[in-house]
Write a structure and sequence with these properties.
This protein has a five-stranded antiparallel β-sheet with strand order 1-5-4-3-2, with no helix packed on it. The protein has two domains: 56 residues, no CATH class; 55 residues, no CATH class. α2 runs antiparallel to α3. The protein is built from three helices and five strands, in the order βββββααα. The protein is elongated. By secondary structure, the chain is of the alpha+beta class.
Length: 138
């Protein structure tokens, strides 16, 4: 726990009877994964992330606030590492497959460059999506 008193990545449930509305510092956001049944998401000071449900608020604190430059780096590294990891694995696999296809096809096809780009793009997308799905925390 740090400044806010809310632990990082630990959900705290607060009834709307106790807290009918969020303080004015909280802003609605699309930055975050949707949760089943949640009506909306909000971000506030100290990297606090809130999901609104019909009868309660679900608070947790992130390492970084993705609305700021410094915070987005911390958020990507510690709160959502599946995003840069997926981008990295997708890029590496796409480049590798593209090179292999080009080297294999360059003497057999006048379109070897296009074939390599298409194969690399498909490999990159597939690897990135698979990495994201398997590495994402629920």
């Amino acid at each position: 726990m740090e400044r806010s008193g809310i632990p990082i990545h630990e959900d705290i449930r607060i009834s709307k009877r106790s807290l009918p509305r969020l303080p004015s510092e909280f802003r609605i956001t699309k930055l975050g994964y949707a949760r089943e049944g949640a009506l909306a998401q909000y971000r506030g000071p100290n990297a606090i992330h809130v999901h609104e449900y019909p009868k309660y608020w679900l608070f947790h604190r992130d390492h970084g606030d993705p609305r700021t430059f410094r915070g987005v780096l911390a958020h990507l590294l510690f709160d959502a590492p599946e995003i840069p990891l997926s981008m990295l694995t997708g890029s590496v696999s796409g480049i590798a497959v593209g090179r292999i296809v080009y080297e294999t096809r360059k003497n057999k096809s006048k379109d070897a460059g296009k074939e390599a780009k298409v194969a690399g793009a498909i490999a990159s997308l597939a690897t990135g999506v698979i990495t994201f799905l398997f590495s994402r925390r629920k």
